[in-house]
């Protein structure tokens, strides 16, 4: 497994982006959708999230492609220039752990992400294309 480390710096904001797998599954099929499309929430790191619900495409690809199924918050939109965008989060990512604590939905993810501080990095684990990744976030 190849490991890549990339450090992004924007103004006073330094973020380390650690990729834990080498390649992304690239298909047109959505692996997660909003459990309730009317229940999205915009969070202050510059992203809109909802409760993630797996699709049939994910279920069909789980075992053959060794993908992961997790509860969490689906990123539906990322604001340009926000902490989420600078860190590399994208629409379609599923945040499943923040600061070492599993999050089951957008309410828990919002609460945990609200605890980000200037003096310490917080690890955010997420799925992209059904594969795990992480970023380290710090408030500017």
Could you explain how this protein is built, in words?
- This protein is α+β, with helices and mostly antiparallel strands.
- It has one domain: PDZ domain (Pdz3 Domain, Roll), CATH 2.30.42.10.
- It contains 3 helices and 10 strands.
- Strands 1, 2, 3, 4, 5, 6, 7, 8, 9 and 10 form a 10-stranded antiparallel beta sheet that branches.
- A hairpin with a 2-residue loop joins strand 9 and strand 10.
- The radius of gyration is 14 Å and the shape is globular.
- The protein starts with a strand and ends with a strand.
Q: CATH topology, what is it called?
A: Pdz3 Domain
Radius of gyration: 14 Å
Under the CATH scheme, the architecture is: Roll
Mean pLDDT: 83
User: Count of DSSP E strands?
Assistant: 10
Q: What is the H/E order?
A: EEEEEHEHEEHEE
Q: Cα distance, first to last residue?
A: 32 Å
pLDDT under 50 segments (min length 5)? Answer: 1-27
Count of separate DSSP helical elements: 3
